[in-house]
## 1
Amino acid sequence: VGLIVDAPPPAHMTATCDELQIEVLGPEWNVDGEDAGPLHETADVTGSDPAYIMFTSGSTGFPKGAVISHGALLNFRSWASETFGLTPDDVLTNVNPLYFDNSVFDFYAALLNGCSLAVFGRDVTREARTLVQRVEEAKCTVWFSVPSLLMFLTTMRAVKGTSFPTLRAIIFGGEGYPKSEMKKLFDMVSGRTRLFNVYGPTECTCICSSYEVTKHDFEEMEGLAPLGRMAPNFSSLLLDGDRPVNVGEAGELCLLGPQVGLGYYNDDERSAAAFTPNPLNPNWTEIIYRTGDLVTLGEDGLHRFVGRKDNQIKHMGYRIELEEIENALYA
């Protein structure tokens, strides 16, 4: 596995390639850079054990720690590999900070599929032309970010028709991408780079659906690109309370499948409210995650985002619940 970083790594395992520092992680390497036996000890780890906790917004102003299992992460790894055809020849971008759940795709889709990962710090991502230059120097093949970052690059005119010559896929998610802005990028890179809109909450291992954008999506410029179809092994319900809605009607998107998280860390009350038994399955306890997103399912099998059932908004991909602002003012 190659890890391309944008700052000099430790000197013990460093090589230079195209003026970028590359750190090679061998099978016996640990975080201290010393030989300490096998990197992974898995005998006592099961698929239901927690692999990581990702903190996200809470309506009281206190973040919720979404607990994700090893099994969920392995299913996500397989989905990413199959959907985007990842191979050890790929170089993925990491423009997402570690505390943001988009980084789950960056690190696990790359490292668990043997790809390389080009890591860019905040000093690079806030400079549009510098970021484009570094991505090109690293010969990145797959990009993933929120639409806001891509809009930043096009607004600053850092992206041209010849930019990103090695990118074969640009993936975006975490917030809506206005079609008028998306078309600017599509017109510059289509024909050599595929664009994918993805969707998924932190509580369900980052991504649960994807949709490839084509020229037909710009025949109507209103609205957003579809969320697409659910990933394999995923299932969805559109509910009004506990009642299923009809095709074409808006309902709360509820997710089922192996990537649904284990709940919120040390928070039984909020876990019970969001991770609930499937009301349509009377035969056994089947946990669904209630996303709070209002979605329609068309005759074409595509999910489309309509709005929220609460006061949550998104900025740069981050959840902001308006009650948090109220609580801060009251405090």
## 2
Amino acid sequence: RYSIRPGLHQHIGGGDQFYLHQIFANISTKIAFFEGFNVDAAIGVDLYNNFDRITTPSDSVLPRVRSDIKHYLQRGHSTLRKLRVNYMFSPAPDLYARLSAGYFEMMYGGFSSEILHRPFGARYAYGVDLSYVRKREFKQLWGFQDYSVLTGHLNAYYSLPMYGLQTSTHVGQYLAGDRGVTQILARRFRSGVVSGVWATATNIPPKIFGEGSFDKGMMFKIPLNVNGLLSSGS
């Protein structure tokens, strides 16, 4: 399969300006060689962006696993958005596995694996994921930077029998090498809109973490698909 669509990349809530964005041409393809094995790729061609208005640098004393977003947005205009090889299979009934390698997203690439046990008809599922990733260059083409990390989690999922609520718990090691737990509670509506809350607490001391002591927030996923023509990322 292949597609060429307009794309919208949003940067919301920054200190320089509340809303910044990029409009790009998203050229993507997915080639399936046999059942469960495919190559997934996408290229973004910049058409317009105002990310040059971001001026505030990161002052993080922790490994800058995400806080270098300014450099990724300003230097990565036309980019290799992703290029990954995936193999998904079922080694046993109700057991599912995935192996992936490549450039996963704008900041990281490497090797990733996951195994999930999801009993048929059950409201719950559980599994584990493990990845070795390296930080990509700011231009998001072929190169990598020096930073690499092993990250992985034990995952548990449960679908509550009311209001379409879904909860998930993830315990493990994060991109900065810190260890802790993430709790997510979300609701999916018939329209496709998803809203929820999440919180992550790790072994980083509050004084080092800074304002807020731990990571938390609200999330909204709103479909922006107009007759299949618009793809959005935020």
## 3
Amino acid sequence: FPSHDIRYSGISGYSGQSGFSGTSGISGYSGRDGQFGGASFYYQFDTRTLTTDPGQGRLNVNNVTLSSATTLTIHDDDRFLSNITSFLQTIDDSSSSIKGYAKITEEANNLNFVIYAIVGTHTDNPQHFNVPISYVSGVTTAYSNSTNVVITFTVTGDKGDQGISGFCIVTGK
């Protein structure tokens, strides 16, 4: 007989059991909402409603009812002696009717805030600025005298150029 090379295979072994799935971790908490964006400066609120220099590191508005105020008076230097003159001049350079926004927030309670639109060109006096404002939202009762506040400014872009006029084609029958 011719020799045949016969090979036999053994029986395959059993597959092992699958492992257990791990447990999912606990999801983290959502973060707090971010603050009003812009450049922030540290001041104290002055309850006087005059538009004269409120003093170094101080600001005030011209009405005890914050929603009725039309002028923000702010010293050139904040509580930490940072001079904000060039920043306020930048806001003033906007050609839009609303130059930007100012948000005044109580440092100890960030839910106690007021937002104003900056609605015109400010007056640069020696040592302070008078900024024309219009109430947007927030608290209406003035802060206590010497309350630590943070004022945050945002600037709006320049007013865009007017587009070209359209035209109309009239056809007769």
## 4
Amino acid sequence: MHDPGTAPLEGGAQVTGTPVPGDEDDARAYVARLWERRVQGTDLTWAVVGAEGTDVAGELLGAVNLLGLADRHFPDTAEVGYWVNPAHRGQGVVGRALDLVLPFVVKPVAQGGLGRHRVVATTHEHNVASQHVLRRAGFTQWGTEPAAHPVDAADPAGERYAITHWHWLAGTDRARAARAAREQALAPCTLECT
């Protein structure tokens, strides 16, 4: 599997390596799982870290994951996931990282990319920030899976949240899709009471 290495991001971030969450034992287990998935060819993970020469140099800002890369049922698809360090939320960290990762995902294999045609994502119905990131990146919501995810993993029979499903197709103008989503969100509406 091609490793895109380190790529600089505007605004003081770069995409490289793997993120390290939790305490040292958690981090070691997490990195071992990521490495195993990478060796198996199923996942790629990049840490988003502050670039040298910025006030966040070397800080872990977040991460971007590509999942399902060995899925034999959908070989032209990759699933993207991400998280942002709470101290750096609302600063466009993931959006800038996706601007680097998505072209790599759809670039032909012969040119060093993954050669995928479709990138999908899912998010919790109440995760408005994540939905905003996806819209700004040019993704389109194509569905909602009602009552799909337990609110409390320890109580799977309890209350459940819906999961929203998103996609972006290679060749789709991401900037145009993002503008259309923004215009639709800002379009005036009329409420009528009967």
